[in-house]
Amino acid sequence: MLEHVELFFKSIFIDNMVFATFLGMCSYLAVSKKVATAVGLGAAVIFVLAVTVPLNWLLDQYLLRDGALAWLGPEYADYNLSFLSFILFIATIATMVQLVEIVVEKFSPALYNSLGIFLPLIAVNCAILGGSLFMQAREISSLGLAFNYGFSSGIGWFLAILAIAAIREKIRYSNVPPPLRGLGITFIITGLMAKGFMSFGGMLTGGDEAPAPEPTTAQKVEKDKTTLEKEEQDKAVSYNTLVKE
Amino acid sequence: MALLTKKDTKLILDPLADNNPITIQVLGICSALAITAELKASIVMALSVLFVMGLGNVVISLMRNIIPSKIRIIVQLVVVAALVIIVDQVLKAFAYELSKTLAVFVGLIITNCIIMGRFEAFALGNGVWRSFLDGIGNAAGYGIILVIVGFFRELLGSGTLLGFPVLGNPIEKTGLYSIGYENNGFMLLSPMALIVVGLLIWVQRSRNKALIEEN
Fold first, then answer.
1. Which candidate from B104, B111, B213 shows the least CB-CB separation from A124?
2. pLDDT value, residue A152
3. How many of the other CB atoms lie within 10 Å of CB of A227?
4. How many CB pairs under 8 A join A and B?
5. Does residue A113 sit in helix, strand or coil?
6. Could you tell me the residue range of the domain that residue B145 belongs to?
7. Number of domains observed in the structure of chain B
8. Nearest by Cα to A25 from B44, B108, B80, B50
9. C-beta atoms of A129 and B111 within 8 A
10. What local confidence, expressed as pLDDT, does residue A211 receive?
11. Is B30–A25 a contact, with Cβ atoms under 8 angstroms apart?
12. pTM of the predicted model, to two decimals?
């Protein structure tokens, strides 16, 4: 239970899709001129993420990852199809979006009218594919957590686009330097908001103890390199001993 | 210039400045921001997009008369996904460390809106050679912004370019550091990417007043 709560708040605030990883920036910038449309798109993103991330989790778990095909029989245990994940994930997303569109149109015309125009946009929103790819990269361990991750990341995205749309509605009345108007000032405001969201980083550590520094990518690569080198040395040693014998 | 007519040159040169995909058309922002903390990663990303866009535009242009318009988005996605898988596998094989740095952002080339945007707007309605040039031009326009942002973020953030120290050594206090210069570590964090792109837009629009938006 606790891990669900932790993942929920972490995905909304700390790993916010827009401010920490820049996912879905294109539609974020293009559709944030009015609060009403921003809410529509945000709701559609929450919905599609909550459906596609668990689906792609199942695909990853039972089809793609190293040894995932073991349930077919022991002779399939050493297949690794993970290079296919891009194409399968995007296919799932595209079909799901079409399916959702058809179902919503059939059963709830009112919802379709408010949400429908955004659905085709969403198939190519990087936030959706990014959600699935990050789910795979972070090795989310159960179906429930995957659903939680998709849903809460969607909420984070929703909050971000709602906030920027509200700010952009107000900024119309201020005197922005002409070359910065429109896109430029939106970028800078988003930067400042991202800076604000960075302060949530201390939320889960309790605040008293210093947070453990997260290894940067460079350090991770460094670590990978040292393990690789070690493996190579081990190999060389065993080879040498073989030769001696 | 027999190979390139005047119109063809325009296809390549236009996206580099006044019709730039990032700063004017607002496409493909996600990857432009996330991986520009280092110059090297930006260059590799720009080349990957160049490859995917050039080839993708050619493939879509070849198939433009046989794709039913109802399912064209899915067809386009499959074409891009196949090309991106090639890029990803090549990177993993020949530049493993870089592919770790770029992580999921190689996969996100699939949903890079520049690519889908050019497929829809150009390759579906134009011949193969012109589509190829359009793809190269737009990818180059995208790449230029990436390289500029990567250059400033790496130079000001860690004092290096492509990993080589150009401002002196911060620990032994040589070069610029001997007169009290400090690296601005904040440049490496995500908010500064947004602000640097914002400033770039400011510079570009101050030079060309025609691009100014109404608010």
1. B111
2. 93
3. 10
4. 158
5. helix
6. 31-152
7. 1
8. B108
9. yes
10. 47
11. yes
12. 0.79
For tokens 């908001």, what's the residue?
A: A193
Is B111 within 8 Å of A126 when comparing Cβ atoms? yes
What integer pLDDT is reported at residue A153 of this predicted model? 92
Paired with B164 in beta bridges are B161
Q: Which of residues 20-49 of B touch A (CB under 8 A)?
A: 23, 26-31, 33-34
User: What string of pLDDT tens digits covers the 245 residues of chain A?
Assistant: 788 888 888 888 888 888 888 888 878 887 788 888 888 888 888 888 898 999 999 888 888 877 777 777 777 777 778 788 888 888 888 888 888 778 877 887 777 776 666 676 676 677 888 888 888 888 888 889 999 999 999 999 999 999 999 998 888 888 888 888 878 888 889 889 888 888 887 766 554 444 455 555 555 555 565 666 665 565 555 555 555 54
Closest CA to B194 of A44, A21, A51: A21
Q: Is B202 within a domain?
A: no
Give the sign of the dihedral formed by CA B149, CA B153, CA B156, CA B158: negative
| A220, burial (CB in 10 Å: exposed 0-12, middle 13-18, buried 19+) | middle
Q: pLDDT-based confidence at B5, cuts 50/70/90?
A: confident
Residue with tokens 């940067």: A216
Nearest to A94 among B73, B194, B197 (CB): B73
B39, B77, B106, B114: which to substitute to probe chain A, counting the most A Cβ within 10 Å?
A: B77
Spatial distance between the Cα atoms of A194 and A20, rounded to a whole number of angstroms: 7
Domain presence at residue B64 = yes
* Residue B46 dihedral angles phi and psi, to the nearest 5°: -60, -40
- Taking a contact as any Cβ pair under 8 Å apart, which residues of chain B between 141 and 200 contact chain A? 189-195, 197-199
Residue B126, exposed/middle/buried by CB under 10 A (0-12, 13-18, 19+)?
Answer: middle
Domain boundaries along the sequence of chain A: 2-202, 213-245
Q: Does the beta-carbon distance from A179 to B81 stay under 8 Å? A: no
